[in-house]
Design goal:
Elements (H helix, E strand, L loop, with lengths): L2 E6 L8 H8 L10 H32 L12 E9 L11 E9 L1 E3 L5 E3 L7 E6 L8 E3 L8 H11 L14 E4 L2 H6 L8 H10 L3 E7 L3 E5 L4
Parallel strand pairs: 8-10
Antiparallel strand pairs: 1-3, 2-3, 4-7, 5-6, 6-9
Length: 228
């Protein structure tokens, strides 16, 4: 599943240790403005830039392979730390809401403040194009996918038992094709290993954090053409 957490803006490096502990509790933390904080965020930003370049390269190679052109609409991260002003959801009156600078830490969660988002299901289920509704109650985040129902180890064990011939998993119930020559990944990422994407998206819609724009059905899922 997806998760997002927000931490209060850390005290500056000049704040006394006692004040920092009182503000953030016994957990490990980095002081904003400290050398450790700056090094961490620099490494974080570098990793995000690397991931963006990697996604761009994959997209370019895919488009070249099928002889198609495209236009970049959205490029987002599912694991990141971003600083933003967050409105307090506890305030009864919208006009009285106060904003606080927080660090939103997304782990397997898509941002809901960056434009339309595709929430994929599995190789054998539909995916949804949604328009997020910015909301402080969801920390401006959405699920980035259906989420796993089984851990990879369980999916691998179950898959080998249920499907002795891994190649049967290269075709889905929807009639789509899966290109993956790695048997372990075929088992680990079988459709049954994931939650019901319809329920996940409808629950988010019910909570008012997104609007469904379109529903996609897979035709080809490409993972790897190289066996271990």
């Amino acid at each position: 599943g997806a998760s997002a957490s927000a931490g209060a803006q850390a005290p500056t490096a000049d704040a006394p240790p006692a004040e920092a502990k009182a503000a953030l509790g016994p957990q490990t933390f980095l002081l904003e403005g400290s050398d450790a904080f700056d090094r961490y965020m620099a490494a974080h930003d570098h990793a995000c830039r690397w991931a963006k370049c990697n996604r761009d390269l994959i997209a370019r190679r895919f488009l070249e392979a099928i002889g198609a052109k495209s236009k970049l609409v959205l490029d987002i991260w599912h694991n990141s730390v971003v600083r933003r002003d967050v409105e307090s959801p506890q305030t009864p009156s919208d006009s009285a809401r106060q904003k606080q600078a927080l660090y939103v830490h997304r782990k397997g969660a898509a941002p809901s403040d960056a434009g339309p988002v595709v929430i994929p299901g599995s190789r054998g289920s539909r995916s949804y194009l949604v328009l997020p509704v910015e909301s402080p109650k969801s920390l401006y985040s959405l699920a980035h996918g259906a989420g796993r129902r089984w851990a990879r180890s369980k999916a691998l064990k179950s898959g080998k038992s249920r499907y002795p011939e891994a190649r049967v998993l290269t075709r889905t119930a929807l009639g789509s094709r899966v290109i993956c020559e790695n048997k372990t990944l075929l088992y680990e990422e079988q459709p049954e290993a994931y939650k019901d994407i319809d329920s996940v998206v409808y629950d988010l819609e019910k909570e008012g954090v997104l609007k469904i724009v379109a529903v996609f059905q897979p035709v080809i899922t490409f993972k790897t053409a190289q066996a271990d």
